[in-house]
Design goal:
Layout lengths: L23 H33 L13 E4 L5 E5 L15 H11 L11 H13 L10 H10 L6 H17 L2 H11 L9 H9 L8 H9 L4 H4 L2 H17 L5 H8 L14
Antiparallel strand pairs: 1-2
Helix pairs in contact: 2-8, 2-10, 4-5, 4-6, 8-10, 10-11
């Protein structure tokens, strides 16, 4: 008797396909990104409108020269008197300003002056980093051109509109003038304290001599003044600040080690307001 059971062939069943449940978070994410994109577009549009409106109200940069005092001479070329304008200023051409004095301002205020086009993104990022690290506003990112734009056309208010106007004016000034012209206008524009506006008046006021006759050490003193004229016109504050300026000049290759050592060892004497022929 055959006990072998005959087995019927097994039916192969395929698993039923099931539709995965919809992700409830997908619609939320989609809404978030759409909202984010719309917000960016709105902000960008508002920003473009703000910049466009600011540009339309910018002053003409064809005349950046500040008002200057007038000097009256006799027929023999002797100075009779000086008639001051609103500010006591006697502009001097950049050719009469020694290169070391020019470099003192560049090293101190805007080391990348000769390479940027009015605004310096690297300088701005560095200033932001320093300010964050020091938990305050201890360093600015304005270039020499921006400072010229601010002093010549704008107020000192720390507002977004003023900063945007300053940057846009700086770009226009760089398009219109050479670097030497910009530096000349800047050095003739800034205030040095003691009622002295411009590098010539500052040189005559503090040292009783023309800018072309200043030493590197004396030039570094003048370059230190615009940051805070009332503070750094005092000799006890001027010397430490002067050494910072000289250190910057050496760092960026404007003076040699020997020139640096000679300058820091030069006796400045008492830094007081001197009488001059102006």
């Amino acid at each position: 008797m055959n006990n072998t059971k005959s087995s019927a062939p097994r039916r192969r069943t395929t698993p039923r396909k099931t539709t995965p449940p919809k992700n409830k978070n997908s619609s939320v994410k989609r809404f978030f990104w759409i909202t984010m994109l719309l917000s960016i577009l709105i902000v960008a549009g508002a920003g473009c409108g703000f910049i466009s409106a600011t540009m339309s109200n910018l002053p003409d940069v064809e005349n950046v020269q500040p008002a200057a005092s007038s000097q009256i001479y006799d027929v023999h070329g002797n100075l009779l008197t000086t008639v001051h304008s609103t500010e006591n200023r006697l502009p001097v051409p950049i050719s009469e300003v020694p290169k070391s004095l020019q470099n003192a301002f560049v090293a101190t205020e805007d080391a990348r002056f000769y390479s940027h086009h009015g605004i310096d993104p690297v300088g701005i990022l560095r200033a932001v980093w320093v300010n964050i690290a020091r938990s305050g506003v201890s360093e600015g990112g304005s270039t020499i051109t921006q400072q010229l734009a601010r002093n010549a056309f704008l107020s000192q208010d720390r507002t977004l509109k003023r900063k945007v106007s300053e940057a846009l004016l700086a770009l226009r000034i760089e398009q219109r003038y050479t670097k030497q012209e910009i530096l000349e206008m800047y050095m003739n524009q800034i205030y040095f304290g003691q009622g002295a506006y411009g590098i010539k008046n500052a040189s005559l006021t503090y040292f009783g001599k023309e800018p072309r006759n200043l030493s590197i050490a004396q030039g570094a003193i003048l370059a230190s003044l615009p940051k805070s004229p009332s503070k750094y016109s005092k000799i006890e504050n001027a010397i430490p600040r002067q050494r910072t300026v000289l250190g910057q000049m050496k760092k960026y290759g404007f003076i040699t080690e020997a020139e640096y050592e000679k300058a820091i060892n030069e006796k400045i004497g008492k830094l007081t307001s001197k009488k001059s022929s102006i």
